[in-house]
Amino acid sequence: MARKYDWRTGSNVEATLSVIGGRWKPVILCNLLVGRLRFGELCRNMPNATQRMVTLQLRELEADGVIRRHVYAEVPPRVEYELTEFGRSLEPVLSVMREWGIAFKARKLSEEAQAHPDDAA
Fold first, then answer.
1. CA 42, 26, 88, 97 torsion: positive or negative?
2. Confidence at residue 29, expressed as pLDDT on a 0 to 100 scale
3. Which of 11-15, 44-48, 76-80, 115-119 has the lowest mean pLDDT?
4. Contact criterion met (CB below 8 Å) for 12 and 30
5. pLDDT at 104
């Protein structure tokens, strides 16, 4: 999982984005804010992401120390993920991103309603 980011010389924003950047990592992290979740629960909460993509993103987040993976010796195997204390420190960033997304979606819905008033009925 070698990434091309050099943390010694890159900017601070670049450092943050190297850990939580991408389409699915922030979504995974927001899901884990509620607590420990199984892999299947994460996938169900992100129906537009493939299982492979979720797996890859989870591995990178684990390698960066943001999440912790718990494997239980059961049949069938059970794997759960949770935020580490370090990962939990991202909560304010993720909350602001979530609030911005809510405002953005509301704005886009309002623009669509104004552009197509007949569709609203």
1. negative
2. 98
3. 115-119
4. no
5. 96
For 37, the enclosing helix (H) or strand (E) is: strand 37-38
CA distances from residue 47 to 5, 23, 36 in whole angstroms, order as listed: 29, 13, 19
Q: What is the pTM of this model?
A: 0.84
d(CA 38, CA 79): 6
Neighbour tally for 103: CB within 10 Å = 10
Domains of the chain: 12-89 (1.10.10.10)
Max distance between CA atoms of the chain, in angstroms, equals 57
pLDDT tens for 53-72 read 999 999 999 999 999 999 99
Task: Please name the residues in contact with 82: beta carbons below 8 A apart, sequence gap of 6 or more.
Answer: 32, 35, 36, 37, 67, 68, 70
Residues contacting residue 15 through CB under 8 Å, at least 6 positions apart: 5, 7
